[in-house]
Task: structure prediction
Amino acid sequence: MNKGSQFESIGAYVPEKIVSTKELVSVLPESAVKKLELLTGIRERRVCSNQDDSVSLAVSAANECLKHSRYDASEIEMVISCSITKYYGGLKHYFDPAIALYIKEAIGAKNAICFDISNACAGMLTGVYIADSYLRSGLIKNCLVVSGEYISSLTKNDIRGIRTIASKGIASLTLGDAGAAVIMDIPDDDNFSLSLDNFVTLVKYNKLCVGKQSQKGPGATMKTDIKAIHEASIKNSYPLMRNSLEKLGLNITDFDFLIPHQTSRSAIRSGSQYFKDKLNSEPGSIIVNVEEFGNTASTTHFLALYKKLNENVFKINDRIMLICMASGLVLGILVFKMNNMISRYGNNN
Amino acid sequence: MGTIIKSIAISENKSPLNRKGSIKLCSEAASRCLENANIDSSELDIIINSGIYRDNHIAEPSIASILQDKLRSKPNKALFQSPTNNGTGHTFSFDLSNSGCGVLNGIQVIDNLLKLGRISKGMIITGDANPIPELSRNFEFPGAAAAVFLTSSNNCPGFESISHYSYPEFKEDFTGYTSWQRAKQNGGFRNVLNIEQDESYLGNCIQCASKSISGFFSENRITIEDIDLVITSQSPPGFPEGLREENKLPVLMKITENNKIAPYTAGPLFDLHSNWDKIQSGQANRILFVTVGAGISVSIAQYRNYCAE
Result:
């Protein structure tokens, strides 16, 4: 059995078209909704044009990941596609075959086993959880975990039904399109192995965010009880985090970076304050990546990591915690130390 | 240590007047599976759903989490109040889809986690039914679901090897997708489910599966003489018979004569269920699972049922 698994390289891709929150809310009647940017910290988001879809976003992210990887696509042994949205050829949502097949073909991973995972915004971290077990078992030597979220159709469909800031469709206005990818393999040094812990589904809360195909327009629709899902996520993440810290023999102050699921700046800040009050301490830095991209569903953690890698923010051995929070209610804690992949992003720290 | 199937159950729409959706069918199959195993759902560490065509095309939360909720028989405990799922006290669930092969992909995920000691009890639930009958074209799968409960055994080999094969040159042979188009009934635009199957799909499935079986035998240094029973996907209709004929495969019992009913993702488990009593009584100890699906994807597993004294 192997030591563990690590992140070998990370990639992401966002479409070129930008839609500002100001522009989005200009069509809405109520003045409280017009304060959406102030409330969420989301200034703008990227939106797919006619050339993009879930598969193309995933392929672009995977190719960006491969650019920074020691592996060639033909050496990739497993491809797990983790998106909620499976649009291919525009807004055609594919059920058969798995879109992981289209992704692996497009990037040239012809020898890879492939399948799709879906677990709401926890998709990529669920894919990492699965890939980690395959790598530890020795069944594979590497794995590409990828997601392409063409999610802006929800904004178009749900904006019509929004009257006030309390409307159940308001969360759809925070969404942005993106692709993200991570290649995982077995580290030479166990110091860099991932620690995945306390992944649970608290089904008592599973009606708080429901997304399905729309019958009012192409694409999907989503209804969210924002306040309730935020409270449930924070209240229940805390004991999971505390338990993970105890098992690892660490304090939150040992962490250089904490990256929660990226929903809105106010949600991340209130969650961070809750953890700080409970733990009486805080990590070095909490990464907030919503200003330019909004909530990009299953890709948020890796989009944030990719951005910070390119900004040369990380040093080797920086300790990072990813907090998984998603509809279901799916929660989980992932801890790792930054390894020498930073040198492949032009960083010699 | 081996991963074994402790119990299995199925559920199906028997009457066209009593059409149950996939979630209802899946939760019925899963409940029966738990009852057969004499365990409560709260003891499951992990639930994986590998069904594809689900009520109203729900995209989130996962269908597995909806099923986890439906199976709850006791009030939720607080976190860390029971040993389930590594001490968290709560199950972890998610969807895994890979056409007709998803069941074996899911079994392999659970097998890994069992062998790593991360879990001790896992369930695969799989089922399909027409999501919205008035908004679908060519959806012919019968409403059907199945569930298997998996755990570890110290003296039974269980699943010994699971392999996957891909034939992407046939990826357009079978597709299922929704698109915004005129719905047949009132002419208005809706998201309509389209199932498109090329006439060469059945023949290509049989050829790809046959080639994969040869590859699997070669990789595992076994021959057909080492196998007592082959459990197969039931879809596309004609696949089990065609595969059997092409490869001279041994079989104990057919599901039905002139079988036109072909459960989709639950098909292999329907086949297993129909042979379960014979397997449990020792008439078949060395079992080959052969699943096929869109892609064309083929997954094959070897399962040994006999236990050391």
Notes: Confidence is low (pLDDT under 50) at residues 252-258 of chain B. Chain B is about 25% helix and 30% strand. The helical segments of chain B are 22-37, 63-70, 102-116, 201-220, 239-247, 267-274, 276-280.
